[in-house]
Amino acid sequence: MTSKFGSDLFIDRHLGLGDNDERIMLNKLGFNNIDQFINQVIPEDIRFKDKSSEILPQGCSEIEALNELEEIAKKNTKMRSLIGLGYYGNHMPKVIQRHVLENPRWYTSYTPYQAEIAQGRLEALFNFQTIVCELTGFPVANASLLDEGTAAAEAMAMSFAARKNKSSKVYLVESNVFDHTFNVLQTRAKPLGIFLKRFTQSNLPNHDDVFGILLQLPGKNGELFDPTFLISQAHRSEIIVSACIDPLAQVLIKPISEFGVDVAVGSMQRFGVPMGFGGPHAAYFACSEKYKRLIPGRIVGQTLSKNGEKSLRLALQTREQHIRREKATSNICTAQSLLAIISSFYAIYHGPSGLTQIAKRLVELRINLESCLVDLGFDIPDGIRFDSVDVYSEHSQKIHNEALKNGFNFRILPLGSTIEDSTGFGISLDELSNEKEIKDILTFIANLIEKKEDLEHIKFDKGFHLESLALRSTEWMQQDIFTNYQSETELMRYIYRLAEKDFSLVDGMMPLGSCTMKLNSAAELNPVSWANLSSIHPFSPSDQTKGYSKIISDLEKWISDIVGLKSVSFQPNAGSQGEFAGLLAINSYFESKGELLRKKCLIPKSAHGTNPASAVMAGFDVLTVECDDEGNIDFQDLSTKVKKFDNQIGALMLTYPSTHGVFELQIRKICELIHSVGGFVYLDGANLNAQVGLCKPGDYGVDVCHLNLHKTFCIPHGGGGPGVGPVAASETLSPFLPTHSLIDNNFFNSSNFVSSAKNGSASILPISWMYIKMAGLSGLRKATSHAILSANYIAHSLKHKFKILYKGKNNFVAHECILDFRDLKSKTGLSVNDLAKRLIDYSFHAPTISWPVPETIMIEPTESEGLAELDRFCEAMLLIGEEISEIENNIELKNNNVISNAPHTLKELIADNWHYPYSKEKASFPYKTPTTIKFWSTVSRINNAYGDRNLICSCNVNQGETLEEKKCA
């Protein structure tokens, strides 16, 4: 089989431009071939001359890659893992798997910054927030965080920022908090000068220097306890109390807020999301009203549109780090949106009664398991437990080995030990557990200890009880959203009603600068659903995860070769976490050398938005470096600061090509200057899609960088997450990359831990494996070249109507270009936000607006878009340019025109009354070239300020019904 491009190689399916398209575009730019063009764009001294690689694959068809990956996946051993510790088996209902996880309308959409064309995913995330509020009893929840460990670290950081006594620097962590969570806390605490102390629930230490406490329910040994008295003690000393709580346990026990807790965090993995060797999974974060301005990440809030429709949009401090820079309280600029959406549909599908049934069954099974173990002579400790039990026994090693023979992984006790050193075993039951499984476990244990006859009298007690712990006494999740969609028919229809409100890559190009909205091919995504990848517990024995080891090893070799650095860690589960990990590596290196004064981090104004916040989190002081009129780093200003601070400089943090969309000519000279004073160069990999296969950061002086696999390497954005931000480092910094342990980290240990699992969101790494395997070096190089070609084609097509703000060598841009509209307001009263809304009428998602320069738009077409789509976008922009001219020339009113009133909805178009001074056709069908493409915004222009003044981030029963029925957002 061959494609219209002449081959069945994957890269010819991935690229939007055929050979003829390429020739047309090159001819327009004045070139005969792509190499000649690229040589004019990328500085000669950094171009990678060798077009071969002994490490990167050669490229292949999707059939070949899928067959090879299937063989690799078979190297994983699919076991029934009852290890627990925050990761549990469950069942994703097939209606959700097929219509959400595997539906490009859900996984190819972007963060809902253009709310009018994102009402579907905003409602799904709003449902997620409502579920969290209903579970925890708090009035405020965000739209998810990265994982439980980092959510706990965010709770600690928020408590630190909100503390009354600014001299308090001790954070108490209850002894039953997961050790891997403790390690993430330790890494986050150290640069902030926070001291962690473990304590037991019965022994609360001196309060004088304490600003916060973290509890875990149930804890790592499965125990629950009533924290009311402990919390009241803490509050008397104005200590902020946070709790990690399992949402399935929270289904049964009374809302954690009613115990007096101030902040609740946890993982929603149990709500229908596979373990996937560690992720991605949506964490939640909920708190009392007084902390709503400090809550990290994204919040979806209700507001009104221009025409009075109840609508949703991102609220409050969303993207605050791009504005506040080093003063931001968090570097989180992402979420786990797709996973949060899956969890929300899981809760909707089961409803409160279904969730309660699942949770009660676990408790019943756990009680029966314990009772039978006691009958077999095992000593079961007293206490309240949810789904887990720890048993210490002289038979421990034999039981673990017998469990393996029977297809089970148990928790090895003590944690962090091996089977050979174990003195106990732990079992955590889950949604997949049933009576047969319990009997199978008891049978092989009884046989092992020669008490088989004792099993003959086993009877399963159907009684449910959690001893003395307070349970829910009032109804919850009573909104219609949780009662109307329990049939597959209704849920399927609801999923699609929401999906059709959203603009995604299904509908057209999403030319968002810095976001790289490229094709996420079906072949790349298919393996995510394979059981041999999705069902693996992150703490499974290494001999069961050889498939994942191979995938990760391949990716490490390939990415190391692509960026020209020694080694890679895949632990960071977002770009922001990759930044943090890279900067921690630099900081840890200097600490190991005793160079404790190197705390200055130079960050150009052209760097990526989260960089300053990440630097502060990692313990650096930020020094801002100016840019010149061409958008380049001001080398004179950089030199002055380097000379002034000299041996205090730890790092320069830059983005390349710069966020201004140009290849800076002096990049080698800049790196050499930092190295001359003993500092390191950190590269934010946000714009790596302009470099892959053409130049290597490690070759021109970069020491450490993170990559966005959800940009350059094809993992979907999923409506604002998941993401993966692996960090690559030179040989010098490699020893300081993130590590992982199930044992508490020592405060003075230089190890860094940035997420709960060793390899972060491992289950989506096969997507990038497939992309690199199928593309090969030549395909990657061609993809990069086409991305740069497409950006320059757009810039060339629009330059006579709009000002291109920054250009690089020979007046070319990199893979994105910035259009300057800074004088628009004075001439017309319009802003770039108005242009973004008008593009909706042209059936486009707007480019990135007002960043990195206010009142500009940044366009990045990527290599996946075809010439017809690029031309459609250029036509739309030029027609909007004509509309702007009409306003400038007073042909159209400045305060009532087709741009300022955009987007126009179908409801407005079919209404009897049309109140605008222009035609319906001009409003809604503005193209001069005939087209069948039309995307309708479901709501008119949204009022953001109203929503922030009247924050509503969950659907209260008293407010009404569901957003779909227009009674409640």
Q: What would you say this structure looks like, in words?
A:
This is glycine dehydrogenase (aminomethyl-transferring). It is an enzyme of class 1 (oxidoreductase). Residues 783-904 form the Glycine dehydrogenase C-terminal domain. The protein is an alpha/beta fold and 969 residues long. The protein folds into four domains: 94-349, Type I PLP-dependent aspartate aminotransferase-like (Major domain) (Aspartate Aminotransferase, domain 2), CATH 3.40.640; 352-455, Aspartate Aminotransferase, domain 1, CATH 3.90.1150.10; 531-774, Aspartate Aminotransferase, domain 2 (3-Layer(aba) Sandwich), CATH 3.40.640.10; 787-949, Aspartate Aminotransferase, domain 1 (Alpha-Beta Complex). Helix content is 36%, strand content 12%. It is built from 30 helices and 27 strands. The protein has a seven-stranded mixed beta sheet with strand order 2-9-8-7-5-3-4, with helices on both faces. Strands 16-22-21-20-19-17-18 form a seven-stranded mixed beta sheet, sandwiched between helices. The protein has a four-stranded mixed beta sheet with strand order 1-14-15-13, with helices on one face. The protein is globular. The two termini are 49 Å apart. 57% of the residues are buried.
